[in-house]
Amino acid sequence: DGGITQSPKYLFRKEGQNVTLSCEQNLNHDAMYWYRQDPGQGLRLIYYSQIVNDFQKGDIAEGYSVSREKKESFPLTVTSAQKNPTAFYLCASISGSKDEQFFGPGTRLTVL
Amino acid sequence: GESVGLHLPTLSVQEGDNSIINCAYSNSASDYFIWYKQESGKGPQFIIDIRSNMDKRQGQRVTVLLNKTVKHLSLQIAATQPGDSAVYFCAENYRDTDKLIFGTGTRLQVFP
Q: Which pLDDT belongs to residue A97?
C-alpha cells in the first residue's frame, strides 16, 4: 500500500537531548512537509522540501533541523534549542502544486 | 496578518441532521482550499477540495461552498453520523506557493 509512515508513534525525550523523527513516503511525491500541532490548535509549518537536497524554513523553524537526502525520506531533528518541544508532529507529502497533502499518522513527542 | 479562521470552535449535532462548518479566510490571493478531518491522535484525512474558479463542489455526503466575495468557505455534511465526530480543519493555499495555511479547527460532536 502507498502512503506515509512516521516513527515512532510515541517518543519521550529528556531535556537537553536531540531527537530525530522519521518520515518515509512511497508515493513518489516531490514535496514533503513537517508540521507541529499543539492541543486544541491547528497545524504550524516547521520545514518543507520541494525537491531532494533542498528545503525551506516554515513559520516555526527555530530549534528544528531537517535533511532531504532521498526523495522518500524527510527526517526532522528536534534539537535542545527548541524550548517547548512537547507536541504532536505531523509529516505530509504532495505530488505537485495545488494538490492535496497526504498526512502521516503523527509522532507524539513528550519531553520529560 | 493573513490567517484562516473558524467561526465555531465546537459544533454539536444530532445524528441524522446536516452539519455546516464554516471557515473565513483573509488572503484574497488564495486559490485552492482543502477540508481535512482529524480524529483524536491521528493525522488529518483529506475530505474535499475546491479551487477558486469554482463556487461549489460535491463529494459523498459532503459539499464545499466557496464565496470569494466575502472570503468564506463552508463544509456541509449530510445525514451526520457518529463516525463524523472529529476536528475539521480548513486550509488555504496561496497562489504560486506550495504552502498550506491551516485554521485552528472546529470540533464536531454527533449525539444520538
A: 64
Mean pLDDT computed over B28-35 = 91
Look-up of cell digits 475530505:
B47
Does B98 sit within 8 Å of A103, measured CB to CB?
no
Can you read off the three cell numbers belonging to residue A16? 537537553
H/E stretch holding B13 reads strand B10-14
Considering Cα of A23, then A29, then A34, then A39, what sign does the dihedral take? negative
Tell me the Cα Rg of chain A: 13
Sign for the CA dihedral angle at B101, B63, B6, A91 comes to negative
* pLDDT attached to residue B1: 35
Q: Cα A109 from chain centroid?
A: 12
Q: Which residues of B touch A105 (CB under 8 A)?
A: 42-43
| B84-108 b/e (C-beta count within 10 Å ≥ 16 → b) | bbbbbbbbbbeeeebebbbbbbbbb
Q: Are residues B89 and A42, on separate chains, in Cβ contact within 8 Å?
A: yes
Residue B6 pLDDT class (50, 70, 90 cuts): very low
Which residues in chain A are contacts of B100 at CB distance < 8 A? 33, 45, 101
Residues of chain A with pLDDT under 50: none
Helices (H), chain A: none
